[in-house]
Amino acid sequence: MIVKHVAMKAVRKSNFGELARYLSDPQERNERIGDIRIANCHADELADAVLEVMATQARNTRAEGDKTYHLIISFHAGEQPPDTVLAEIERRICVGLGFGEHQRISAVHHDTDNLHVHVAISKIHPTRLTMHEPFRAYRTLVGLCTALEAEYGLEPDNHQARKRGAENRAADMEHAAGVESLLGWVKRECLPQIQGAASWMALHQVMHDNGLMLRERGNGLVIEAGDGTMVKASSVSRDLSKSKLEARLGMFRLAVGHADQVEPTRRYEARPVRARIDTSALYARYKTEQQAIADSRSFELLTVRERKAREIDAAKRAGKLKRAAIKLMGGPGVSKKLLYALASKALHHRIQEIHAQRRKDSQAIRQRSQRHTWNDWLQHQAKAGDQQALAALRAREAAQGLKGNTVAGQYRRSNAPLATPEHITKQGTLIYRVGNTAIRDDGDKLNVSRSASQDGLIAVLSMAALRYGQTLTVNGTAEFKEQVAQAAAAANLTVRFADPETEKRRLVHLAANRADRLSANRPRGIHR
């Protein structure tokens, strides 16, 4: 179990209402939102609770920091604690951080490969109106996670910090966007060479050979790539801080003499993170599409700006004509002054309308032509039926196989989707819906949600038979295996199970069902 605090970089962007809306938005996916809980609010409805929290925050006029605390509690793939356990874990973590009496809203999300809980907490105490900021929260969370994992039998994580802040942010970016960061590229490709340099000249030469530049910035050093991307040298390794390098190599010296040298042997480029298959052709297609979107957006925005300029010029000409007509009119000066004022007001109003329409059109263009990250583009293409994109998602090193209650087979006939998926995760897991049952498909196994109905189990067995043939392997709890055996017998499916005990239970239920049908069809009054 991992608990992470998502800090808002700019306080002005923090908004409890927006966060609550994100937490509770199903985003057209039935599987996304699970249990939603409201704590320490008088309101029972989500919208009313959000208004109550925001009103409480508004009453504290002294606090200048972020008044909202956003937590994410994430579990290992395959772990599905019941809602009562999730609620208790959320409560214990909030109490441990000192938010036990604070207003908060939590939502369970099921739309990724890892079940996770978002918690939006108001830092403002509902009665004292003071703001609470946990002291060294990461240390508190280490103890809480360790205790909760042991108490509820969850798979333990190593909660000791192994990466610094910049490394964590780079890893998060690589995971979310699927594109290699400069920090990650330097650490993987040329860090040993950089650390082995014995002089400033040798260090600058290593940097040049890799298409990089080391230069001063503020009180430290930064590594800059050819495309202008920069990263703090000390973020790559503590050994590369300015103080440690100067202690080893002497006073910092600028790079000289590299302008006439040969081209670097390699350069950093924002490319997909390492995968088990070649994605170069897909990535080239992605870059071409994104560039086309950017060009189209620039052209449309330019068209809007030019139209705005023409309309403003036309409005000003019309206003000038009105003033000229007023000047030629007879009558008292007071009347002319009033007419001039009305003409000026009409022009001002018309220009405001033009600016408002331009903002509206520009916003519509930007929303319509948003650029996608590499991962988002792969998800979109995979949902449209692109098998190469789906294979690329599943080939990522971060992708993990499904765990928990699963159905699979020894032989695989096809990797094609078994139906139209409701959603595709960043790891390439397809999520299907059958009534209230969610079925997850990673290409190797089918996973079934805890609340699976018999119809859902029959559906997953039918899907598994299409992909793996008649002999199926069932993994999971004893209760799940029993439910699968009952479903197979109830639907009289032509499948059999590799596990002898599960197959025996299927045959027992099948015989019992046949006996029940014979008894129901036997005419009354005939006894044997």
Summarize this, please?
The chain is an alpha+beta fold. It is 48% helix and 14% strand.
Describe this structure in words.
The strands form 3 sheets. A 7-stranded mixed beta sheet has the order 10-11-12-13-9-14-15. Strands 1-3-5-4-2 form a 5-stranded antiparallel beta sheet, with helices on both faces. It has a 3-stranded antiparallel beta sheet with strand order 6-7-8. With 528 residues, it is α+β, with helices and mostly antiparallel strands. It contains 17 helices and 15 strands. Helix 3 (83-96) runs antiparallel to helix 4 and helix 16 runs parallel beside helix 17. It folds into 4 domains: 2-152, BirA Bifunctional Protein, domain 2; 181-249, no CATH class; 280-368; 400-521, no CATH class. The longest helix has 49 residues, at 280-328. It starts with a strand and ends in a 7-residue tail after the last helix. Strand 14 (471-475), helix 16 (478-490) and strand 15 (496-497) form a beta-alpha-beta unit.
